[in-house]
Amino acid sequence: MELPNKKVKGGRINPKKIVIFSQPKVGKTTLLSHLSNSLLIDLEDGSEFIDAVKINVIAEMNKINSTSEKKVNLLDTIKIMIGTINKANNSKKGYVYKYGIIDTVTALEDIALILAAQLYKTTPMGRNWLGTDVSKLPNGAGYGYWREALSILINQFEQLFDTLVIVGHIKDKLVEKEGKEMTSRGLALTGKTSSILCSQVDAVGYMYRDKNETIINFSASESLLVGSRCDHLKGKEILVGSSDENDVLTIDWSKVFLD
């Protein structure tokens, strides 16, 4: 191995993983469904009214269980889906879908509890454990397994797409700053999971509406936990959707995901 003596140019412009969160009913799923060559992974059975290239994981689970003697849960269904996409990618020798959209990470966190229990049962301490919910282990001992399980699933999804879009809900919490209480807005996940996940992705944006416009804010502040490693997103507020007087929607992701 030779030690480098000059700068190496970065290999990516667009985020590999990006979190977009907002208040409910802002239009995240509708806007993201317009991303070209994308797959919407619906984990909340919430895309019934949206035209999209999509997999409804709950519906797929029910379909499998209606025709098979061996019953599957949501984690099993996700594993089947990941295997199917991975096989298609290998056959194509590339990505079948450029963008994968997890809708939502809150639902994925709930599913990760199943995997967390499996992980715990492989340890000496959990070998004889008969429970199913690691969050109920004494002294918070299960939360590390829960975070690990969510990380495993997200990493598996990441391998399937050029860009993974992780959709989430907003969480307001009180924090103390210089002796004063203030409201901080961030991604709604359990405990430290939100801050850990957001530190592992390339960009975190807060989507909001201003009259007839929908905007994603990547500009961090004391009260808003967002930001980006990508130069074209740093400190920016980017318009991604607008509607006219006839409610005709115009959607443009070209400033978030550059060609």
Question: How would you describe this structure to a colleague?
Answer:
This protein has 259 residues and is an alpha/beta fold. It has 6 helices and 11 strands. The model has no long low-confidence stretch (mean pLDDT 93).
What tags apply to this protein structure?
259 residues, eleven-stranded mixed sheet
Total number of distinct structural domains: 1
Low-confidence stretches: none
Shape: globular
N-to-C SSE series?
Answer: EHEEHHEHHEEHEEEEE
Average pLDDT level: 93
Specify the structural class: alpha/beta
Q: Report the total helices.
A: 6
Q: Residue share in helices?
A: 25-40%
Main β sheet profile: 11 strands, mixed
- Compute the number of strand runs: 11
Distance between the termini: 35 Å
Cα Rg: 20 Å
Strand content: 25-35%
What is this structure's SSE topology?
Elements: E1 17-22, H1 28-32, E2 38-42, E3 54-56, H2 57-67, H3 74-92, E4 99-103, H4 105-121, H5 143-158, E5 163-177, E6 180-187, H6 193-200, E7 203-210, E8 213-217, E9 227-228, E10 237-243, E11 249-251
